[in-house]
Amino acid sequence: MRVDYRIERPVMLSASFEVGGFTVLLGTSGEGKTLLLRAIAGLLPARGEPFDGLPPQRRAVGYLPQGHALFPHLNAWQNVAFALRGPRRRDEAVAWLERVGLATLAERRPAQLSGGQQQRVALARALARKPQLLLLDEPTSALDPATRDDVLAELIAEVHAAGIPALAVSHDPALAAVADRLVLMHDRRIVQVGAPAEVHARPASGAVARLLGLRNVQRGRIVGAPGTQRLLWPEAGASLPVDTALVDGTEVDWHIAPEAVEWHDAATATADAVAASVELRQVGAHGHGAGLRCGQARLWAALPPEGAMHGRVRLPTSSIRCWPV
What we know:
The chain is 22% helix and 31% strand. It has eight helices and 19 strands. Strand 1 (2-7) and strand 2 form a beta hairpin.
């Protein structure tokens, strides 16, 4: 489904992209992501497709606002039944709750449910409308890290099972990592679209790299001509060899993957190595690494040898990516 909308108030915003499967629109707070969902749902004056000109009640959308917006005085099945009509509303509502694994909790009110359970009730209510498009606003915002992945897996499985395209807006890179399709927004415009693997492999800019949660996105400046270029890294007081097609004096965002950073002791360090000290060691289920202090900058790297606290790091030229800003 093609989304093509233009909003003029309260902010200027234009967005055009395809929604397929579970699509995530990723952007920082204040970009207008929620405004776009409200415009598609008909809750905000705007022009665009789909559903242009239709009142909210005639738009075939299921909308899960941030916080789920469940009615606190109604139990779970009554919340779902709010989207239904006819004498069999209760049976249909319970059937939808069964699809999201909550039929046994049909009589409970929202305050008696966990954040993940409330989200599934809201999802059942949205799907009960049999929409052509599902809209989700920050669906991970009310979830704690311990349950987020499981709830996301259930949410995406239900979306796929229903066969309804879904557009989720978020600033959470964890949500972007499980999308079928990824849309990146910066400065209130779409800056990159693609499959998550493609976008992660080739971010279009430093801003996109930051949105994706990549570590080691730094600011610098290119000096010299191609073939003899250096990358000035002011925060670290360093000058690094680079190989780009950018002209002398170009301000850049640059990135190096933590696993590409090489740790050396003083005896083995090359002339281009940067002085570093270990600030933080991370060891856990989601990976190992170290936060290094280089001048005024922080650089993430693989874990140095046990006990090593001071040394020098080399940043291989082939591992540095630069984007003009």
